Amino acid sequence: MTKRTAAKYKIDRRMGENIWGRAKSPLNKREYGPGQHGQRRKGKLSDFGTQLRAKQKLKGYYGDLTEKQFRKIYAEAERVKGDTSEMLIGLLERRLDAVVYRAKFVPTVFAARQFVNHGHVTVNGQRVNIASYRVKEGDVIEVRQRSKQLAIVLEAVALTEREVPDYLEVDHSKMTVKFVRTPSLSDVPYPVVMEPNLVVEYYAKN
């Protein structure tokens, strides 16, 4: 388990970007990095630094992913025929917690992981409590009946700061979402620019 849950917005200030596009981000008040040296002028990043930053930003966006988990996903993307950077995004977006977050059943990616782990969702009628569960095209995810009136769910549905992407078909009246297709990078509504090609370069050299 990473420490991101306890200090989940610190990565915003370290990266200098509001990576989830949330109104609560401290970056909206303090645009410099965390810590006593946060306001120092930053030097130009090396190629390695740029690649590392891209990797940390993409990994951090998906919440509590460890380096081991993220590298494993990358290795899987690399094995599949096609553009590795696009495959990486597709695999990340097929995680059950990512789908729950994208469907606006919960307000944050961290809440999505916890929501799934606590058994609040089903996939094709079967309860699944593994956040990293990989959904397939055509799968239907539903919030369990006893969980549909939870405050966190009602709050998330009402959020206006993000939209549901078109590779999902969501019915908020029934609290269901169908995973229509695996998205490409251009389909995913990241609030900031993600550079999976730099992530590929990073792992290719390290």
Automatic annotation (TrEMBL):
By its UniProt entry, which Pfam families does this protein fall under? Answer: Ribosomal_S4 (PF00163), S4 (PF01479)
Query: Annotated region Disordered: where?
Result: 23-47
* GO BP annotations listed: ribosomal small subunit biogenesis; translation
Gene Ontology MF, one: structural constituent of ribosome
**Which domain of life, per UniProt?**
Bacteria
| Domain RNA-binding S4 per the UniProt entry, residue ranges | 94-158
Show the GO cellular component annotation of the record.
small ribosomal subunit
Keywords of this entry: Ribonucleoprotein, Ribosomal protein, RNA-binding, rRNA-binding
Q: Which family does it belong to?
A: Belongs to the universal ribosomal protein uS4 family.
Q: What does this protein do?
A: With S5 and S12 plays an important role in translational accuracy.
| NCBIfam families assigned to the protein according to its UniProt record, in alphabetical order | PRK05327.1, rpsD_bact
Q: What is this protein called?
A: Small ribosomal subunit protein uS4
* Name of the gene: rpsD
